[in-house]
Design brief:
Length: 160
């Protein structure tokens, strides 16, 4: 039992490292889109998440879940389904936080605009979108790992 727990821990660490790359890609693309192009947050999230998704599939199939992977159409479709579900959850979290938890005029977003991110994020609405993204990201990482571990990259998932 201890060997399996160690393997799962190593696998989670690998997943987390890939996740860091995905997050940098996702967060970077999202921030550029909402801060400099004026793209709606939901569209920006879909685009940025897709960029991270492609990176995730590549590195997770080649490294994290290499032993379990079968690289079949079924595996890829399950991967896409898990990630679409995660994307929808992330957009929902963004919506709730930017509209209900951190409405404009909130002290936290005022601090982000005037202090922490002063000069980079210049409007309160952009700060709200970035803060909401900061909260959505760890939640979706956990959901995504569980979905991929349970449904996509489990042993035998590649059988047709």
């Amino acid at each position: 039992m201890e060997v399996k727990n160690k393997k799962n821990l190593i696998q989670f660490i690998k997943f987390a490292l890939v996740g860091i790359m995905n997050t940098v890609i996702d967060f970077g693309v999202y921030t550029v889109l909402v801060s400099f192009t004026g793209v709606h947050y939901a569209i920006a999230q879909a685009i940025s998440y897709t960029c991270g998704l492609l990176n995730s599939y590549l590195f997770n199939t080649l490294w994290t879940f290499r032993e379990e992977r079968q690289r079949t159409a079924r595996e890829f479709l399950l991967f896409v389904a898990v990630n679409i579900a995660t994307l929808l959850v992330s957009i929902g979290i963004l919506y709730v936080f930017r509209n209900f938890i951190f409405p404009e005029g909130n002290a936290v977003t005022d601090w982000m605009v005037n202090g922490f991110l002063g000069g980079f994020i210049t409007t309160e609405s952009k700060a709200i979108e970035i803060l909401s993204k900061l909260i959505a990201t760890p939640i979706t990482i956990i959901l995504n790992f569980l979905g991929n571990k349970i449904f996509v990259f489990c042993k035998g998932s590649g059988k047709n």
